[in-house]
Amino acid sequence: MTDGLAGRAERRQHIAEQAGNSSGRVFQAIGSSIEVANVTKRYGPFCAADDISLTIQPGEFITLLGPSGSGKTTLLNLIAGFQKLDSGEILVDGKPIHHVPTHRRGFGMVFQSYALFPNMTVSQNVGFPLRMAGMDRETTERRVAETLEIMRLSEHALKTPSQMSGGQQQRVAIARAIVMRPKVVLMDEPLSALDRRLRESIQIEIRELHQTIGSTILFVTHDQGEALTMSDRIAVLDAGKIVQVATPVELYRHPETRFVASFVGESNLIEAEIVQKRGSTMTLKNKAGYVFNAESRNAIDVGRATVLVRPERIAISNEPASNTTQATVTSAIFLGEILRIEAKMESGETLLIRCSDIAGRAMPSPGDTIHVSWGAEDCWVLA
Ligand SMILES: Nc1ncnc2c1ncn2[C@@H]1O[C@H](COP(=O)(O)OP(=O)(O)OP(=O)(O)O)[C@@H](O)[C@H]1O
Q1: C-alpha angle with apex 339: 335 to 344, nearest 5 degrees?
Q2: Average pLDDT, whole number, for the chain?
Q3: Domains of the chain, earliest start first
Q4: Confidence of residue 46 (pLDDT cuts 50, 70, 90)
Q5: Assuming Cys at both sites, which of 14, 235, 346, 373 could form a disulfide with 245, CB separation 3.0 to 4.6 Å?
Q6: What is the model's pLDDT at position 24?
Q7: Are 90 and 102 in contact (CB under 8 A)?
Q8: What reaction(s) does this enzyme catalyze (predicted)?
Q9: What atom in ligand 1 is closest to the CA of residue 64?
């Protein structure tokens, strides 16, 4: 886990060449497409998946993100075949799969609990699916060695799970999930039992693994930071429905609803009046008369609106300047690389500000007056 990015790329190329593939992809691009069409799942009167539709591209890394109880695991279980859907259809590479039992779907799976066999070595754990599939010994050994190398586990091959850390055990579980070279890998909160630093390092490993193996990965998490770091696209769930599907950048910058704006990243939601509209640019005025411009592609009429301003996009100054509005500091905390300030605007709304321009800046104190502003490109009018 200590080699740099260049070293990792070289290692990937080396493993790929040994596997007879000069493209740098060990398992080639083998990911399947998944089409979830109008899927509904009820538990008694309770609807855990409510008419969900989602198209996942071959080889895509897609994350289901949502608060506890929003239906992420239900949707993953329906795709895995652990649960039966009440209505709708799930297609893999264009073929319906809801009559195919879980073990015939050929998906790799990783869960929060590592579920390793305690009495087997790492090699035996990883080779288990190959032996079950009746693969010959020579191919099994080669595949296991290759997979252990990808997961940086070669030196642990003869250990048993109890001789390994939580992070290493989860890497064994991931190795076991990919050893069959599955077209789809399903991961349900695989990192939530690990501490923050380990989680961040395995996030990067899983992301690189995805580039190496080319499988479609469906990843479940309630951690928005994890989703933003890892995914090609994120599907946000709330109360059994998908509320937005977008790339991490699009989701962060242009959330479609208040729920997505608040759930993904920290946000300030400011009430204002749209006073003028020119294409996608609008001029707004807040309750205290501060006039600013903002962008939105949503169909919005002149009138009241909610504007998202991310805390790191707010500029502050000690002196009034053109087009700033006044605010009173209520708290200021030094967090090392940034200052985290809360300030009450004249409108009565509280602003959260993350200020990274701290060199030479005096630490504000509660009660200080500051002047805040933001540009049109820094805020977003919600639909
Ligand atoms: N077997 C079941 N019987 C009854 N209700 C269930 C069952 N499984 C899930 N539910 C309910 O369905 C809803 C969605 O559950 P699900 O596990 O899919 O949510 P989740 O988003 O994965 O949550 P978490 O992040 O807490 O795991 C919850 O309200 C849950 O209580």
Answers
A1: 130
A2: 89
A3: 5-253 (3.40.50.300), 266-381 (2.40.50.140)
A4: very high
A5: 235
A6: 45
A7: no
A8: ATP + H2O + polyamine-[polyamine-binding protein]Side 1 = ADP + phosphate + polyamineSide 2 + [polyamine-binding protein]Side 1
A9: 21
What are 247-266's pLDDT values in tens digits? 999 999 999 999 999 999 99
Task: Give the residue carrying structure tokens 């996608």.
Answer: 280
Select from 110, 112, 80 the least CA-distant residue to 178.
110
Q: Residue 244: beta bridge partners?
A: 236
CB 284 within 8 A of CB 307: yes
Residue with CA closest to ligand 1 atom 1: 43
268 CA to centre of own chain: 21
**Tokens 């690389």 map to which residue?**
337
Q: Which residues contact 99 (CB under 8 A, 6 or more apart)?
A: none
φ, ψ of residue 24 to 5 degrees: the values are 95, -10
Ligand 1-lining residues (CB < 6 angstroms): 43, 46, 48, 66, 68-74, 222
d(Cα 176, Cα 126) in Å, to the nearest integer?
4
Of 273, 270, 298, the C-alpha closest to 284 is 273
The residue whose two tokens read 């909160």 is 189
Tell me, what's the ipTM? Answer: 0.96
pLDDT score of 21? 46
pTM for the structure as a whole: 0.87
Helix, strand, or coil here: 177?
Answer: helix
**Ligand 1 atom 6, closest CA:** 43
Cα 67 to ligand 1 centre (Å): 11
| Ligand 1 binding pocket mutation candidate from 41, 43, 76 (most atoms within 8 A of CB) | 43
Nearest CA to ligand 1 atom 26: 68
Minimum CA distance residue for ligand 1 atom 17? 73
Which atom in ligand 1 lies closest to the alpha carbon of residue 70?
21
pLDDT score recorded for residue 19: 44
pLDDT beyond 70 at 281: yes
What is the distance in A from the centroid of ligand 1 to the CA of 70?
Answer: 7
Q: Which of 236, 170, 229, 235 is nearest to 200 (CA)?
A: 229
Q: Determine the distance separating the centroid of ligand 1 and the alpha carbon of 338, expressed in angstroms.
A: 38
**Of 46, 50, 192, best ligand 1 pocket probe by most atoms within 8 Å of the beta carbon:** 46
As a whole number of angstroms, the distance between CA 74 and CA 135 comes to 32
